[in-house]
Amino acid sequence: MKNKGKSFWIIALALIMLAGSMYVPAGSPTAAADSNFADPVNLGHHIESVAVYDSAYGEEDGHDVMYTTVSGSPAIFQVIDLESKEVLRSYPLEGTGAVWTHITVPNGNVYIGGNGHLYEYSPGTQEVKDLGGIGESVVYGLSYDEDGRVYFGSFPNAKAGMYDPSTGEMRDYGTVAPGQSYTRSTAYHDGFLYLGVGVDNRMVKLDVETGEYESIPVPDHVIQGSSVWQMDAFGDYIVAGVGGGDNSLLFYNTITNEWEDTYYENNKGLRLIQGLPGSNKAYFLQNGRIMEIDHETLAASDTGVRFGTFIRNTGWVELEGDPDFPGYSLVTVQFAGQVTYMNLETKKVKTIQLPVVGNPIPIQTLENGPDGNLYMSGYPGGKGAVYRPDSGTSEMFTLGQAEGMAAIGDKMYFGVYPGAIIYELDTTKEVLDRQQIYDIPHQDRPFEMEPVNDKLYIGTIPDYGKLGGSLTILDPADPDNAQVFENVIHNQAIVALAEKGDKLYGSTTIAGGLGIDPTEEAAKVFVWDLESNEKITEFVPDIPGLDYDPRMISGMSEGPDGLLWSAADGTIFAMDPETLEVVKSRTIYEDVKHYGRWRPIHIRWDDNDMMYTTLAGKLTAIDPDTLHYKTLGSTELMTVGIDGDIYYADGTDLMKIEVLENTLESAMDLISEEAADGNISHPVHKQLINSLKQAAHHRDKGDLDQARKFVDKALGHLKKAKGEDVANDLEVKLALKTIEL
């Protein structure tokens, strides 16, 4: 917190500024005369990541080059010379945060699938063009035909699209998998586009001229995953890879229009590795081995080459002057921007870290740690960071996309997507190194983590295409005996938990994983017995001011009044934990309906018993006694630091609003401003000022105890004031509570 000066100094400072110029350090917080909140200060971005999902390959000026895009805000498309190991050119893709697909077409141009937009890079002009899209959020799975037309899938409406570079036409085929979210991959063959669907694993065959399509289910033996996320043409076969489940690699015969009996499990790749031109071979990654497929028999044999991660996309290049890599070698990119070369003749593998330009990435989660520092995760996952308010420094560490965080003792715990993996980080150690301690079965996103008696109670969102979240009870000292209670609330997921006494209270969202529609109509509150580990009750709360049942209730937190506070859409409300009745509520943001899907609203408290929340995506300060409020900004992520100040996320940046301390004089100024604005009636204004003048009199005599009594008396006057006498007491109450004598 920062002190406000006395009235004299405020006036003096104003005169100085009128008389001449004055130096103010960059980033110094300032406040209006009638506010306890300083102006927001940008603390900068603290998470940078090289997050690469895909690549493509080509040739420029006689050199082999790689085309790839680093995720961020915005994502950056980069042209990298594989021989000189230089980044030749980079292009920000405005409006796109991540790219899942690239493809090089026969004329050398590169197409890039972004956040709803298709981009084209020309090695000739060295320019990137935004070609637009078909009204979707993500472009997936690029492929092309013999005429150079480019095809793609999409999210969230499982569409098919086509761009014709000869005419500039962008064709929207519409949804080809009604009720589904993803067309995650595509492959073109002989007049038809084949699309891999998620979450309901199947393939769609689309006539690219007529737009007619048919659905082709995957074979019955397939253990389904999140989607059919790999699709490639291999001769007369369409090779389809299922992401998740048993990771099946399947072969569809386009002549017989049937799936072949041959298939392979544990395939780890987003694209098939096509053999050299003229070859009848293809390759895939299975259990860390590069396997060769013969087109005539579909038999797979081990090449002897080992690769420990994931095949994203590949090309064939020559490494001149390296005897370990004669002829053509396979090249692929890794998530962190490394390039790996593999030679099938010598079986040699080498990985090189190229100078791929990193990028700030948006903050995904923000929480206080046990050491007084702030912990953050980023999106897309890979890195986290700790920000140290006392020094203003930060440090990145390997994390993943943490959706939830919590602290127990000196340890920080992270719930990471995908797979609902729980990590532990010892904050007392010099090296920030998180360790996996548990993997919650059948779940995906651990948004809610509540420490109770040295255990973690974790509410999760289920896997893709599934309904019904789990409540997991995890003792970090004994993770092998974790208890998982699935589908605690039928077909709903848990997004809020709060302990009080011998009970755990929670609330839900009706949403499941991506790719499935809810079956329930109203979010619920439930009560859990901490001793018997049984659900006591569940119900849809009656929230005054809402004439409908919200789809998500979140943010549950015990307030200083002993009530359980929660949020739904633009409404804040408090429930009596004994009667389970809603005893206070206010709709602060009108016309907000069905806000949010999974991410809980944050409700935090400071030492002055004030509430700070992200209600309806607005950073809002609320007096829990009167429900008077003030909107401070917009964000989905915030917390109150141990210094009492407000920290929140703004995209890639960490922001701070200082809650200012007051003197008696600055408090009287603020109260007078509030009265002048009509927020306080004249009689109440007079009572407050008289009490504070008495406090100043005793302070000046050195009797701080008596001075404090008169400050408390002013608070008493404010509390007794009738509603018509105080239009909004938040600023006045906070000013009185933050007085430093």
Automatic annotation (TrEMBL):
SUPFAM superfamilies (alphabetical): 3-carboxy-cis,cis-mucoante lactonizing enzyme, YVTN repeat-like/Quinoprotein amine dehydrogenase
Keywords, in A-Z order: Signal
UniProt cross-references to Pfam families, sorted A to Z: FIMAH
Gene3D superfamilies: YVTN repeat-like/Quinoprotein amine dehydrogenase
Signal peptide: 1-26
Domain FIMAH: 665-725
UniProt name for this protein: FIMAH domain-containing protein
Lineage: Bacteria, Bacillati, Bacillota, Bacilli, Bacillales
